Amino acid sequence: MMSSTVWVxxxxxxxxxxxxxLQQVQxxxxxxxxxPVTAAHHTSSxxxxxxxxxxxxxxxxNAVAGFLTQLDAHQLLDALQQIERSMGxxxxxxxxxxxxxxxxxxxxxxxxSDTEQLQLPHPGLLVRNFVMQPLADIAPELRIPDGMTAAxxxxxxxxxxxxxxxx
Length: 167
Prior knowledge:
By secondary structure, this protein is an alpha+beta fold. The mean pLDDT is 90. It is built from 4 helices and 8 strands, in the order βαβββαβββααβ. The chain has a single domain (8-165), classed as 7,8-Dihydro-6-hydroxymethylpterin-pyrophosphokinase HPPK (Alpha-Beta Plaits, 2-Layer Sandwich), CATH 3.30.70.560. The protein has helices spanning 21-33, 73-86, 129-138, 150-157, and strands at residues 8-16, 38-43, 46-49, 60-69, 102-108, 113-114, 119-120, 162-165. Helices cover 27% and strands 26% of the residues. The strands form 2 sheets. Strands 1, 2, 3, 4, 5 and 8 form a 6-stranded antiparallel sheet that branches. A two-stranded antiparallel sheet has the order 6-7. Strand 6 and strand 7 (119-120) form a beta hairpin. The chain is globular and about 45 Å long.
């Protein structure tokens, strides 16, 4: 079900550090490409990064996907959560713990939301190089919430702890 005929750009962060994370991220790309009423899919390079949470877990594989959608933000969030469940994501009591897949809605056009269910832009967007670098790969001129471009924010955050993976 679509909310309108307006196409809205959306950006999704993808991360995995369990059960062949490289393949999990690539599988997430495939699922995202099949979302209803979406088009113009772009995917970033893949990056290996140290875990943000507990250190006793494997490194993450991270990426960002961007596309145009006619789904509204809540419909898109529901679709992302359905993809996570279908890929075997378990509810975890451990914040930032290991996971098979994690899909976070980073930005949905210029929409802002601060509810328990949906925070837009994503609260970690401006401080996580493992999100900003892949976002800058596919949308370097995108104006992020603080007004600077994704490329400039990625440059400011630096690449410490990030390794681009050749695929």
